[in-house]
Amino acid sequence: MYQCVFHSAKISIFAHKFYKMMKKIQILCLAVLSMVFFSSCKDDSGTYAGQLFTNSEKAAAIKACLNSSLDTAVAHLCTSGGFSEYNDGLYKLDFSANQAMMDTLAAHGFGNLSDSLILHTNRMAESCYTVVKSSVGDAIDNLVVYDYDALITGGDYAITDYFAEMKGNAIKEAMRSQVQIRMNVFGVDNIWNDMVGKYYFITNQPVNYDLQGYVLTKMLNGILEEMRNEEYMIRYDETHRVSADSLLGF
Predict the structure, then answer these.
(1) Contacts of 193 (CB under 8 A, 6+ apart)
(2) Torsions phi, psi of 111, nearest 5?
(3) Which whole number is the average pLDDT over 146-166?
(4) What is the pLDDT of residue 174?
(5) Angstrom distance (rounded) from CA 153 to CA 7
(6) In this predicted model, what pLDDT tens digit does every residue of 204-215 receive, in sequence order?
(7) Per-residue pLDDT tens for 46-84?
């Protein structure tokens, strides 16, 4: 009889422990399911958006992202002090590739020419709001996308990087004539030619340098980099989104 009571007590203790263990498992499972559910409600990667929306809606969102990024880029750079000062002068047209030439001129009392070239070139670039907005905007309108999902669910800068690869050269060509006109208006060419002439007089060495090519490339690189930064913000900060790009939950 005592043996039966002893075994009953052991069974009771075992059942109680088993019940507590099952409750813990149940709670753990509910916690895991809740995490999965709530994390799936926020589509940071755009995976579900890629499945739910049409190609037309995806195309509209991609172009909305680019246009919004362009607006931010020109607001930062194509304004007084933009290229020359924004982000601690990160995008300044400084002619660093010609530093040896500028050092030689400075050593012979012509350092003011280099300062003047940098000043007037940046002012010229900062005056190009309409040129940049029009040229880049037209390229966005004409952008052809073959894999919408790859851009939507790609890296932080996937859309701008694709745009730069597909349209970068065309944008520079579209900007070329108007930028050249402004370079003349701001006296950039005259200052440069004066520098080249004095450098040749000092060193007897000609200077072969694509001035306009440098200016166009430096300007466009700055605009595209600011567009990349804004694309990142659009993807991760909903306050930077407009209606079309928020449709896909970048």
Answers:
(1) none
(2) -60, -25
(3) 94
(4) 98
(5) 61
(6) 999 999 999 999
(7) 555 556 688 888 999 999 999 999 999 999 999 999 999
Sequential DSSP letters for the chain: -HHHHHHHHHHHHHHHHHHHHHHHHHHHHHHHHHHHHHHHHS-TT-HHHHHHS-HHHHHHHHHHHHHHHHHHHHHHHSSTTHHHHHHHHTT----GGGHHHHHHHHHTT-HHHHHHHHHHHHHHHHT-HHHHHHHHHHHHHT---S-HHHHHSS-TTHHHHHHHHHHHHHHHHHHHHHHHHHHHHTTHHHHHHHHHHHHHHHH-------HHHHHHHHHHHHHHHHHHHHHHHHHH-GGG--HHHHTTT-
* pTM of the full structure: 0.78
Contact residues for 52 (Cβ-Cβ < 8 A; gap 6+): none
CA atoms within 13 A on the CB side of 119: 7
Distance (Å, whole) CA 195 – CA 205: 12
pLDDT of amino acid 46: 52
| Cα dist from 157 to 13, 14, 83, 142, whole Å | 60, 58, 21, 19
Sign for the CA dihedral angle at 118, 123, 129, 131 comes to negative
C-beta atoms surrounding 151 within 10 Å: 24
The neighbour count for residue 161, using CB atoms within 10 Å, is: 17
Cα torsion angle, 46, 48, 54, 57, sign: negative
Percentage of residues of the chain with pLDDT beyond 70 = 76
Residue 132 token pair: 């940049």
